[in-house]
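Morning!

This is the sequence you dropped in the shared folder:
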Amino acid sequence: MSKEEALTPSSAADRVEQALKFLEGRWKLVILFRLFGGKVLRFSELEKAIPAISQKMLIQQLRQMEADGIVRRIVHHQVPPKVEYCLTDWGQALCPALDALLQWAAARERPGETDARAQSARSAS
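The structure's back. Tokens below.
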């Protein structure tokens, strides 16, 4: 974005909405975290790493992420077939943003804050 394109509250909200569409879906963030750090995982390794996801849903989420340019699918033509997944450079670029999100969430659970919220909830009842 150039300096001439200053964000307004409305245009910023639109851009956030567009960005979040890439991450829609219950499992996409989990898949991203499994692939961060340059990891290359076979489909079966992803299945084992995320046991609560169905095979159908994993395939669907990976295909969407591949179509969006976040994940790269690597097919090795051999018998038995071997398919691996890794993040594209653009997908890997999400790492700092998601780390910031984790830090933001962790700040809510800092010692003292949890106790104050619990006490406030008890006194309200």
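Headline: DSSP finds seven helices and three strands in the chain.

More detail when I'm at my desk.
O.
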